[in-house]
Write a structure and sequence with these properties.
Length: about 400
């Protein structure tokens, strides 16, 4: 299984300039590829092959006056940018044909130097290495200082250098994990659990434990509002506006990092304590179109469930997602009788069949666990689906955590 480990970089002034050149050259090659493809499409010609584009846009372009500065950066960076463009077109066509899962993708667009995220990738043939002093030595950039918050479990196969909207630099390493080592870290257990996700409480467990929602965005709203107001009052194009933009971006990054850390700690605890985990499939895309949109985004359910998925696969746990239309709040977890829908204001209810008194969220967590087949009801009613292993998610070069935690 492949995972990404991200670490903070601290380049000096000269290395920042070299990285800016590398970001710019990679962006130009990507845009030239998109332009060449679009010109061919409009002219009715076949799309140029990857080898032809590499020869034209990189090898030959280096010897021209307009693109001579491409030779100032590593050729691997340019080749990887070309591969990114090829992958973008491949995903676009697969989305058009319906062979790619997920939302529909649009055609690749031109990148801008003002994009919030700039990145370059070095593969093994770029001859980058980690020095004995712990620095990351990159070709034509130099040995960059790294904040190693943890040790890498294995030799990385590639590294992606990223500059985010807050001006911070990160190195993201792709690691092939060792299944035997992962299994030893998480010994088997006979416990299972059901999780009911919500807004008042981030999660209510079938054990009765209620985990409060930290509401990181809500708590930081006053600070973010002030930073946004300061940014709006600055003249466009001025240095003070850029300072205000960075201040706002860093404030948003603090919220994102705090939420991610909370998700990592909770998901790791649940995976380590339980062999089977059941969670309800939620229509997040539909909920964000309601008046609860800000609270739903603040909770970050999708990211949390994604962490449970890859950690369950990594450590040999079983994760089951129940159907989003499962009436977990209507079914009595004691006798299995469906008691009908209830308004959200009803937090406790009594089963008309068996007389059991239920906390709404705790009963939903128990129902999720029973519907997933990880527990039987109190009356011994048979459970429905058998547990299945979580599906593997391919690790990509985009959207990696901006911290060093990978598990």
């Amino acid at each position: 299984m492949q995972l990404r480990y991200a670490f903070r970089l601290y380049p000096d002034a000269g290395q920042r300039i070299a990285l800016a050149k590398a970001f710019g050259c990679a962006r130009v090659v990507f845009n030239d590829c998109v332009r060449a493809r679009e010109d061919a499409r409009k002219a009715g010609r076949p799309f140029p092959k990857a080898g032809e584009l590499s020869k034209t846009l990189i090898t030959q372009a280096k010897h021209t006056a307009e693109r001579g500065w491409l030779g100032e950066v590593s050729a691997v960076v340019l080749q990887q940018s070309l591969r990114d463009a090829e992958a973008a077109y491949k995903n676009f066509f697969a989305s058009l044909k319906g062979t790619r899962q997920g939302p529909k993708l649009g055609a690749p667009r031109f990148k801008s130097r003002k994009d919030a995220r700039q990145s370059i990738r070095f593969t093994a043939n770029a001859r980058w290495n980690i020095t004995d002093s712990g620095r990351l030595d990159l070709p034509k950039i130099g040995a960059v200082k790294v904040k190693w918050s943890r040790a890498l479990p294995a030799a990385p196969t590639s590294v992606t250098v990223v500059k985010d909207s807050a001006g911070k630099f990160f190195a993201s390493f792709v690691i092939d994990t060792d299944p035997a080592a992962d299994a030893s870290r998480m010994p088997a257990t006979d416990q299972s659990i059901g999780i009911d996700l919500g807004l008042t409480h981030f999660a209510v467990l079938s054990t009765g434990e209620k985990i409060d929602s930290p509401r990181f965005l809500r708590r930081a709203e006053k600070k973010l509002k002030k930073a946004q107001k300061e940014l709006s009052r600055k003249q466009k194009g001025s240095k003070n506006r850029e300072k205000a933009r960075l201040k706002l971006a860093r404030a948003h990054a603090q919220v994102t990092d705090a939420r991610r850390e909370f998700h990592h700690q909770l998901s790791t605890r649940l995976i380590s304590e339980n062999q089977g985990i059941a969670v309800e499939s939620l229509s997040v895309a539909g909920l964000v179109r309601t008046r609860l949109a800000k609270s739903v985004h603040d909770a970050g359910w999708s990211r949390f469930v994604a962490m449970l998925e890859y950690k369950a696969q990594r450590y040999g746990r079983t994760l089951v997602k129940t159907g989003r239309f499962e009436p977990t709040s209507q079914v009595c977890s004691t006798c299995g009788v469906k008691d009908g829908p209830k308004p959200l204001a009803v937090r406790e209810w009594t089963c008309a069949a068996c007389g059991a008194v239920h906390d709404r969220d705790h009963n939903a967590a128990l129902s999720v666990q029973q519907a997933a087949g990880l527990a039987a009801s109190a009356c011994g009613a048979p459970v429905r689906p058998e547990p299945v292993l979580a599906q593997r998610e391919e690790t990509g070069s985009h959207g990696f955590p901006t911290g060093s935690r990978a598990a």
